Amino acid sequence: RIVVFGSLNADLSVQLPELPQAGQTVLGSGLFRSPGGKGANQAVAAAHATQRRGLPAAVRMVGRVGADDEGQLLRESLAAAGVDDSGVQIDREAPTGVALILVDDAGDNMIAVAPGANLTVGEADVAGAVAGLRPGDVVVCQLEVPVPAIRQLVRSARAVGARTVCNAAPAAALDPELLASLTVLVVNETEARHSLGLSVTTPPQAAQAAASAGCAVVVTLGSRGAVYATPDGDAGACPAPSVEAVDTVGAGDAFVGAFAVALTAGDGVAEAVTAGVAAGATAVTQLGARYYPHPPDPKSGDER
Ligand code: ADP
């Protein structure tokens, strides 16, 4: 099974003709409210990928929301997507995280996040995430919750023989010990520079990154797809299909969800990258961080 450990945010999006410069005001269209957060988006992406592939694997989300409407909305959206939300705790002290998202006509975006309850994720949540893990399970995390919790999670997951996929987003430097204890690091180009200190756009550069990090490295390259390498020297590239990009928010999350499901299904890194690239390309064709054209169960609907 898959456990996604990470953030839940209420996304507030406005579409604009162009992104504002500092000090500038730009008038856009109406406000679009949707459930988001890298963790929750990846859990939903994984649930859809699981159902699309007809796999029995269950997806469980572990994280924190506030005792407010947004928190309720987030939990409902997870349940509607078929994600087990029993690991999502309601924090009485902090509000649900909020992301303010600006998207321009070219599909580029700017995002500001007020993390709220995501910052209170800690030891108790790690214990909840690791409970019941079995060898071969896949644990997915990102960096929108405190890094000490991530470190603890990766260590505990590894101790029971589970595999770990860390999407090091938003961009941050990662210590060598954490990198070496991961199964797979998934980053975009910018995040690769921060987490690995390397520019990675080709398979040989990915191979160099994997050798120095001590884990498999996957770097997503937007419309150019992704490159990957494993520490034992397997490296390659997967181009993305040509699609009309409307909104790139959530492309990386769709990639990670589908990638993790492929690993659970027994795929190697190369095959899992192919699954991730296909899911990412689909995600950019519509507005919203969670877009799935064929919901497996019409009754569950789409949470947008
Ligand atoms: P992030 O959203 O984390 O910055 P990327 O922009 O690299 O990540 O996108 C993740 C994946 O989504 C890519 O590997 C690719 O498969 C897909 N993708 C993103 N943008 C496009 C695009 N313009 N056309 C086709 N696929 C895309």
TrEMBL record:
Oligomer status and interactors: Homodimer.
Task of the protein: Catalyzes the phosphorylation of ribose at O-5 in a reaction requiring ATP and magnesium. The resulting D-ribose-5-phosphate can then be used either for sythesis of nucleotides, histidine, and tryptophan, or as a component of the pentose phosphate pathway.
EC number(s) stated in the UniProt entry for this protein: 2.7.1.15
Protein name (Swiss-Prot/TrEMBL): Ribokinase
GO process terms (BP): D-ribose catabolic process
Pfam families: PfkB
Activity regulation annotation text: Activated by a monovalent cation that binds near, but not in, the active site. The most likely occupant of the site in vivo is potassium. Ion binding induces a conformational change that may alter substrate affinity.
Source domain of life: Bacteria
Catalysis: reaction(s): D-ribose + ATP = D-ribose 5-phosphate + ADP + H(+)
Signal peptide start and end residues: none
Name of the gene: rbsK
Binding-site residues, ATP: N188, T220, L221, G222, S223, R224, G225, G252, D253
